[in-house]
Every structure is written in C-alpha cells, then in structure tokens.
Write a structure and sequence with these properties.
Blueprint (H helix, E strand, L loop, with lengths): L2 E8 L1 H5 L3 H11 L2 E8 L3 H7 L9 H8 L4 E9 L1 H9 L12 H5 L8 E3 L3 H11 L17
Antiparallel strand pairs: 1-3, 1-4, 2-3
The structure holds adenosine-3',5'-cyclic-monophosphate.
Length: about 150
C-alpha cells in the first residue's frame, strides 16, 4: 500500500445542486483524508491549463465553459492508493457507463457535467495539486500510525 494524494474537484453543478455534503460524505466514508480544500471560481486560463491534455478534443471549449461557469470545490485527498480509490468512487467518466453506487453513476446524467474530477495517475495528481495549492495549504494528518479507518 502506497500513501498517495489525489487532486479532486467538485464541479459547478455540485454547488448549484447543493450536493457538496453528499459527495464529500462518500469520500469521507471511504476513509480518505481531506487534506486541503478551497472554494473558487476558475479563471479561464487556469481551467485550460488544468485540462490541457484535452485541448485538441471537440468537447474542450464546452468543458472549459462548464468548469468556469460557477464555483468549484478543489481538494487534496490523501490515503492508501488514494488515486485509484478516488477513481473507483467516482465511476466511469462517461455518464452512461458509470455504475450505480458510484458518485457519477448515482448523480450524473451527462458526461460534461459529471460531478467530480479526480486525478487519473499519481503524476497527474502531482501536476494538478501544484496548479491549485501551495505546499503550505496542505495539512498532514493523520500523523504516524494515527490511522483509525
Ligand atoms: P474529468 O474527469 O473532469 O476530465 C475531463 C473531462 O472532460 C471529463 O471529466 C468530462 O467532464 C469531460 N469529457 C470527457 N469526455 C467527454 C465527451 N465525450 N463529451 C463531453 N465531455 C467529455
């Protein structure tokens, strides 16, 4: 088991639909640690940088329009194998493929408005965390063997 960090972002629809508690509750119940959290409205250049691997895709403009359309909740989520654990909790990117029981499977009907972003690899997590957070904004807990989940 490797302790990892994932960059997690609740998309504007989560704030608009008042689903923040629902989504964070699932992340917490899994046993993952919220180690940083920030509510912000993304400036367009930051959104474009975050999603730069998709810039040639036909949905890129719509994706950036949507993610900049309202507030997002940016988080660093830590835990054993946190990157895979978060991806499993989120479910498939395509709304039609996300299984019931996952965040997207239960809460998303459209792929563009798929509730949550979570890093797809430890390397992506490192890049994305650095885009949104300064090192001092992250709280390290639990320390040592202070695990209870
Ligand atoms: P996310 O995990 O934030 O990473 C990239 C996002 O692009 C993805 O979630 C979706 O919101 C969006 N996306 C991926 N594929 C499509 C698609 N085919 N049509 C529209 N949006 C997409």
């Amino acid at each position: 088991m490797e302790r990892q960090f994932s960059y997690v972002m609740l998309k504007p629809g989560v704030l608009q639909r008042r689903l923040v508690g629902e989504v964070i509750g699932r992340i917490e119940r899994k046993g993952l640690c919220i180690q940083a959290m920030k509510l912000l409205q993304l400036p367009r250049p930051l959104a474009e940088e975050h999603y730069r691997e998709h810039r040639a895709k036909p949905f890129f403009k719509d994706l950036v329009d949507y993610i900049t359309s309202g507030p997002v909740l940016a988080m660093i989520v830590g835990g054993d194998e946190a990157v895979a654990a978060m991806r499993q909790l989120c479910g498939a990117t395509a709304a039609a493929e996300a299984q019931p029981g996952t965040i997207r499977g239960d809460l998303a009907l459209h792929t563009r408005m798929n509730v949550v972003h979570a890093s797809d690899s430890p390397a992506s997590a490192e890049r994305e965390i650095a885009l949104f957070f300064k090192p001092e904004e992250m709280v390290n807990w639990p320390d040592g063997d202070g695990r209870w989940i």
